[in-house]
């Protein structure tokens, strides 16, 4: 004899209950709550002392519970699908963000490389310019030396040489020539100052320079600038060339 038959013989009113995971649940709310937590769908009748229900009411309750459980399952599946879609969206957004960061890093590297090549190109151009400038200065020095050799002597051997003055001719960076008469006992620095003041084309503006004689070749130092002109053998005439000062 089943437990249900024994209870009926003892006179206890029996009603429909539901068994889920071996647990007796008394009403719809308890069953729905348990189903939502465990995702269980299978249930069966169980004997328990409850409010008497008719057979028709029992069938209706069973059908209602099955319908509600199916609705709960459908809603849960929809929520899981929605959550999966949201996770996929977040994953794609994170992937796009990482791709953007990587692209920005590559763009920065390319920019640095282009700037480095630009600097190298400028340095090469400046070096080439310096070489060409030095070649030009050397040519001018040779030309000035040749002109000095071809220049006739200002006085004959029988004439008395006047060493109190000196006629100096200076060739500037741009090839132009300036001339001036100086006292032979003036320091050579006066000649350099006069050259700087008479550079009308501003070819030497901001450029450190000194003076040199092409023949015999001699570049005058800062110490030489303090000595008088006649001490350098520049009397009575001299041809000089402006050259860049190298410390």
From TrEMBL:
Annotated Low complexity bias: 147-157
UniProt region (Disordered), positions on chain: 72-101, 142-161
Basic and acidic residues: compositionally biased ranges: 72-88
SMART domains: UBX
Gene Ontology CC entries for this record: cytoplasm; nucleus
The UBX domain, residue ranges: 161-242
Any one GO biological process: negative regulation of protein K48-linked deubiquitination
Domain of life according to the entry: Eukaryota
PANTHER family per UniProt: UBX DOMAIN-CONTAINING PROTEIN 1
Coiled-coil features, chain-numbered ranges: none
Pfam families on file: UBX (PF00789)
Compartment annotation: Cytoplasm
Keywords assigned: Cytoplasm
Major place of residence: cytoplasm
One term of GO molecular function: K48-linked polyubiquitin modification-dependent protein binding
Entry protein name: UBX domain-containing protein
InterPro entries tied to this protein: Ubiquitin-like_domsf (IPR029071), UBX_dom (IPR001012)
